[in-house]
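Subject: for your reference before the review

Hello V.,

The reviewers asked for a structural picture of the protein, and I figured it would be easier to keep everything in one thread rather than splitting it across files. Below is the amino acid sequence we used in the manuscript, unchanged from the supplementary table.
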Amino acid sequence: MKNILISTGHSLRYEDFVRAENCALFDSSGKRYLDLESGVWCTSLGHCHPKITKIIARQSKQMIHTGYCYLNPIIDVTAGKLLRITGINSGKCVFLCSGSEAVEFSVKMTGSFSDKPYFLTMKNCYLSAYGISGERSEHDWIQYDWKNGENIEEIDFSKISAFVFEPGSSSGLVHFPPEELISKIVLKVRENGGIIIANEVTTGIGRTGEWFGYNHYDFTPDIAAIGKGLGNGYPVSCVVISDAVLEKLNLKEFHYAQSHQNDPLGAAIANEVIDIIEKENLIARSKIIGDEIRNRLKEIKNKYGIIKEIRGRGLMIAIEFEDNGNFSYAERINEELLKKNIILVKRPGFEVFRVDPALTIKKNDIEYFLESFEQIVSTIR
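And here is what came back from the structure prediction:
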């Protein structure tokens, strides 16, 4: 191969995939692979959904790109739907290309009007490929380590401009902070004049059995950053902004220009994704199927004793293995799954698998995975 493959998500070798359909990938020889990652957790409706490809063709004939100074009617239609399903209701939307952009936009926008010095987030969350919470950040961050029992009372909430909350991914490890804790943080931030930003790039668009990960908690954010599943594989994201935030925003102080901001093609695809999910009741389906998968995995856990924990909501599922000491259960099992043409994420450096199939996954594909997984687990010693 003449190209360079850069991968940090799993140990899958390069394959010349040439076609995809729902949860299946096909290589040039016709071999079928079961994709339990949804690409990079993006194809919420499965690869090459016929209604999405039809919308892409139709909108492409009308208008693909306008420029960020102009609007197309589909942008307003899709914005209205996103305001409705987020529960923010009254506000505005900005369409971008990636989830990282959406999070970056949200943080930069908040920093433009807040005089508070810190952003608060949970330790081990993933906020942006641009490193907004890392060494390259222009903001100061407090990363609260809730898993190790840090005292929340030691945080000075009067200095927090925003709580940037990723409700469940935890750098791919799938940990869900307790509802009581999050309610307390949200209350303290708002009492002190800060705002709540929900990072829904991974947990949004039905992934957790609700429209958004924060729907499992008792609050509505002031800003929601949405990506991945919103475009079903097409690069579109959105920042949903409440009127309360817009009232604080000074457009003379905040400037953001991106070449594909508010492109009608991305908005048309997002609009169709929302329609399909609603018409086919896929969020309720993801909750039911996710419960069925976790119940089967728990049976396997209890039967063979090498699985430490099963975590998940909806179709965001983590399988954590015991520490063997001699070899990695996860690596060994992943190798065997690949031999059966099953693709899922083995988290680098951890004994953890991620299972994130499309909301449209077929029952026979689920059964094939579970039967294969149990057969492999039963032989691992």
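For the response letter, the relevant points are probably these. The first strand starts at residue 17 and ends at 21. DSSP finds ten helices and 15 strands in the chain.

Happy to draft the paragraph if you're swamped.

O.
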